[in-house]
């Protein structure tokens, strides 16, 4: 795909349901014997892996009048389940927690890209709870899990990860005694919100600067949820508006869960005008967000905020090429363990387009403003890098050819059409 230099972007658009929330809605609904009703599920291809998994866990899944209806099995299957998680890390890590609490062996496998990612981060705490979790060499998937008879633990996350937190909490639902997860830095809280909505015995508190979440074992009631628009897809459109002079874009009904709005706050700090409509919604709040172009200035991003905008950091790199001064991102080593190493992938791609970029061990620094030039860049099979480089075409004044745009559908299949309708 290629994009060419653009005029101002203007208009109102929508994005499909949030990917993180959709994974959880589907997987948690599959754990309840009551009927769950989910509206606005993500179209992200990654979420199909979670839907397939829900069915393999014995849930009845149907679609009626735009609602997804899911009812978990009253008697979950005890026999071997082998689940293909595709390229979805969220599917695999959340399922590792769910299956650890079930009797019987299960296997979690996926595409080569997913098999290269670290899974020991979930295997270690789940073993501490009493599950047998075998990994391939290097702590990678496939995972062979023999679950059952778990005991609650107190676990401090060594890396700030909502996926690991969620895996331990979901295993905790089936453990004896209370499970507590301590997170040194807060991460997205969708699992907690949905568990509350489904009646789980879950509480959270702060002590000595550490955020803790405790969960008591127990069953779940049904879920009734409208999934708000994807915060990360909205961030892509917000970036487009923030980059192109004269732009003004409104994205309707976007997730404004406070653990997902850090990117929009950062955008405002960079000088962009960001306005929120009145929030609505239930367990997961949504609001219209309007972003208007203003000249950009550099910012600094540190470890405390990184987990709250981790998927948006490549967008920050592109924005920084147009901002006055040097933008520094630190404490973001986790970017190296995403679908691909997003630090080196971003640095390589932006350099090819003429940006002034330094690579750090746990981040990057970009000095702007720079006039980006025509070029060919490789997203290395990563949906988020593919979108960043495609947006660069809005600035380069001519064609930027991006290899790997077919992966964009992993999170935002409508990217090209929504962006095209704004230009
Ligand atoms: C996600 C958490 C983050 C994020 C990923 C989705 C989630 O990963 O990067 O895209 O839905 O919980 P980590 O848990 O590895 O930080």
Radius of gyration (Å): 21 Å
Helix and strand composition category: alpha/beta
Mean pLDDT: 96
User: Can you tell me the CATH superfamily of the largest domain?
Assistant: Enolpyruvate transferase domain
Present as ligands are:
shikimate-3-phosphate
Low-confidence parts, pLDDT < 50 over ≥5 residues? none
* Total tally of structural domains: 2
Q: Number of DSSP helices? A: 13
Major beta-sheet overview: 4 strands, mixed
Which of globular, elongated, flat, extended, rod-shaped describes the shape?
A: globular
The CATH class of the largest domain turns out to be Alpha Beta
Helix content: 25-40%
Account of the protein in words:
There is one protein chain. It contains 13 helices and 25 strands. It has helices spanning 19-29, 46-56, 89-100, 112-115, 120-128, 162-172, 190-197, 231-243, 262-269, 313-320, 342-352, 383-392, 415-422; strands spanning 2-3, 10-14, 36-39, 60-64, 67-71, 81-84, 104-109, 132-136, 140-147, 150-151, 154-156, 175-176, 179-183, 202-207, 210-215, 224-226, 248-255, 273-276, 286-292, 300-301, 325-329, 356-360, 363-368, 375-378, 400-403. A 4-stranded mixed β-sheet has the order 2-17-19-18. A 4-stranded mixed β-sheet has the order 4-5-3-16, with helices on one face. Strands 6-7-9-8 form a 4-stranded mixed β-sheet. The radius of gyration is 21 Å and the shape is globular. It is 29% helix and 27% strand. Helix 1 packs parallel to helix 2, helix 1 runs parallel beside helix 3 (89-100) and helix 1 (19-29) runs parallel beside helix 7. It folds into 2 domains: 2-16 and 228-422, Enolpyruvate transferase domain (UDP-n-acetylglucosamine1-carboxyvinyl-transferase, Chain, Alpha-beta prism); 19-226, UDP-n-acetylglucosamine1-carboxyvinyl-transferase, Chain (Alpha-beta prism). The protein is α/β, with parallel strands linked by helices. Bound molecules: shikimate-3-phosphate (S3P).
């Amino acid at each position: 795909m290629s994009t060419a230099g653009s005029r101002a972007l203007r208009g109102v658009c929508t994005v499909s349901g949030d990917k993180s929330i959709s994974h959880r809605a589907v997987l948690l609904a599959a754990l309840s014997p009551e009927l769950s009703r989910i509206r606005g599920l993500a179209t992200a291809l990654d979420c199909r892996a979670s839907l397939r998994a829900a069915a393999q866990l014995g849930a009845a899944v149907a679609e009626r009048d735009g609602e997804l209806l899911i009812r978990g099995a009253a008697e979950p299957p005890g026999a071997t389940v082998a689940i293909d998680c595709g390229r979805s890390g969220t599917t695999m890590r959340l399922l590792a927690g769910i299956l650890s609490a079930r009797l019987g062996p299960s296997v979690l496998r996926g595409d080569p890209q997913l098999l290269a990612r670290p899974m020991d981060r979930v295997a270690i705490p789940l073993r501490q709870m009493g599950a047998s979790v075998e990994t391939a060499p290097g702590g990678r998937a496939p995972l062979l899990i023999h679950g059952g008879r778990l005991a609650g633990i107190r676990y401090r996350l060594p890396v700030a990860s909502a996926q690991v937190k969620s895996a331990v909490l979901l295993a905790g639902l089936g453990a004896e005694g209370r499970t507590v997860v301590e997170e040194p830095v807060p991460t997205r809280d969708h699992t907690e919100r949905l568990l509350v909505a489904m009646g789980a015995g879950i509480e959270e508190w702060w002590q000595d600067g550490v955020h803790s979440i405790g969960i008591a074992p127990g069953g779940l009631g049904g879920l009734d949820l409208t999934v708000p628009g994807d915060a990360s897809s909205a961030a892509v459109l917000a970036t487009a508006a923030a980059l192109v002079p004269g732009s003004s874009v409104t994205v309707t009904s976007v997730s404004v869960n406070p653990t997902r709005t850090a990117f929009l706050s950062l955008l405002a700090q960079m000088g962009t005008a960001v306005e929120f409509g009145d929030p609505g919604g239930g367990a997961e709040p949504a609001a219209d967000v309007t972003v208007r172009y203003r000249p950009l200035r550099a910012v600094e991003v540190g470890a405390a905020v990184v987990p709250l905008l981790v998927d948006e950091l490549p967008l920050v790199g592109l924005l920084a090429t147009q901002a006055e001064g040097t933008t520094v991102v630190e404490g973001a080593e986790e970017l190296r363990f995403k679908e691909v190493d997003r630090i080196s992938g971003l640095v390589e791609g932006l350099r090819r387009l003429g940006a002034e970029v330094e690579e750090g061990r746990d981040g990057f620094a970009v000095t702007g403003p720079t006039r980006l030039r025509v070029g060919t860049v490789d997203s290395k099979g990563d949906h988020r890098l593919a979108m960043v480089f495609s947006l660069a075409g809005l600035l380069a004044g001519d064609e930027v050819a991006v290899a790997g745009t077919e992966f964009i559908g992993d999170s935002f299949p409508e990217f090209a059409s929504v962006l095209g309708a704004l230009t």
